[in-house]
Amino acid sequence: MDAHSSTTRAEPQTRLGPPARPEVLALFGPTAVGKTAIAIALAELLRSRGEHPVAVSADALQVYRGLELLTGVPSPAERAALEHRLISFLPLDATFSAGQYAALAHAEIDGLLAAGRRPLVVGGTGLYLRAALGELDLRPPPAEGARERWSAELRARGAVALHGLLERRAAWAAREIDPHDAQRLVRALELLDAGELEPPEGPSQLWSGELRHPTLLVGLVMERQALHARIDARVREMLAAGAREQVLRAHAAGASDTARKALGFEELLAGDVERMRRRTRNYARRQLTWMRKLAGLHLIDVSGRDPASVAHEILAAWG
């Protein structure tokens, strides 16, 4: 009996044996924790099982062509070891949104599964991870004139003053936003005025257990001092490789507002390396806070471990 005719049988069929493995593997963790190296080690193990893995980036800024050093895009050697999708494909002057990313990520993941390949979703941007794995419930656009009004306030009073205003009106929202992140501050105040910014209920408004495909979600963590040391080392390596020169070129080329959100862009433009280091550490802390709220997360402490041992643990969890 062929596969098509077997589906017409009326009686129920019982499947024995272990449950099917998740179709998608997703690695999330703070900047500098070693996601790329672990993904490459995991891909090697998967290939030994006859799998054909492909990484799908879930990073808001790695999409830009011309900011590879600043955003930590995998090197050519790393891309040779594991194919990566959704990196370095946008020009610097383009704007980009989570909604646009979601459509691209869904197409990539669905296409890979249809082709019998194994998607490895790898990233550190929480919203983009959510966009890749599930469906987004995006906020409405601002009311007419709201953005212009708050942008004028930003120019007149500065980002720190606006952060103080947001803290007085919605302290829980201010805790999630860097005092110098002008774009997020303006957006938060717009939503607050529109009655669309509400305190989160439960773990996270950006996460849901209703994912598009069965997924093993792995969270990578590291002892704080070790992570800070790796962040500091990464900043030094970026500078030595020419990250500041890359930022200056991007600025001269008319980088969009969204491209300028890359960690360290404005700091390197101003020559303030220490502020870049502090902001990166703070961002890593927020990534960890967000990650630990996720339901169904397989948490792995990678402190003092090599990528291969972490990859073996992930494979064991996958089944």
Mind explaining what this structure looks like?
The chain is of the alpha/beta class and about 325 residues long. The protein has 2 domains: about 20-135 and about 210-319, 3-Layer(aba) Sandwich (Rossmann fold), CATH 3.40.50; about 145-195, no CATH class. It is about 50% helix and about 10% strand. It is built from 15 helices and 6 strands. It has helices at about 5, 35-50, 70, 75-80, 100-115, 125-135, 145-155, 160-170, 170-175, 180-195, 225-240, 245-250, 265-270, 275-290, 305-319, and strands at about 25-30, 55, 85, 120-125, 215-220, 295-300. Strands 3-2-4-1-5-6 form a 6-stranded parallel beta sheet, sandwiched between helices. The longest helix has 19 residues, at about 275-290. It is globular and about 60 Å long. It starts with a helix and ends with a helix. Mean pLDDT is about 90; it is low at about 1-15 and about 200-205.
Key attributes of the depicted protein:
6-stranded parallel beta sheet, Rossmann fold, 319 residues, disordered N terminus
Mean pLDDT: 88
Structural class: alpha/beta
Rg computed from alpha carbons, rounded to a whole number of angstroms: 21 Å
Low-confidence stretches: 1-17, 201-206
User: How would you characterize the largest beta sheet?
Assistant: 6 strands, parallel
Classify the fold: give the CATH topology of the largest domain: Rossmann fold
Order of strands in the sheet with most strands: 3-2-4-1-5-6
Q: What is the N-to-C order of secondary-structure elements (H for helix, E for strand)?
A: HEHEHHEHEHHHHHEHHHHEH
Just give the CATH class of the largest domain: Alpha Beta
State the CATH superfamily name of the largest domain. Answer: P-loop containing nucleotide triphosphate hydrolases
Number of helices: 15
Gap from first CA to last CA: 31 Å
Strand segment tally: 6
| Count of all domains | 2
**Structural shape:** globular
Q: What is the helix content?
A: 40-55%
Strand coverage percent: 5-15%
CATH architecture title of the largest domain? 3-Layer(aba) Sandwich
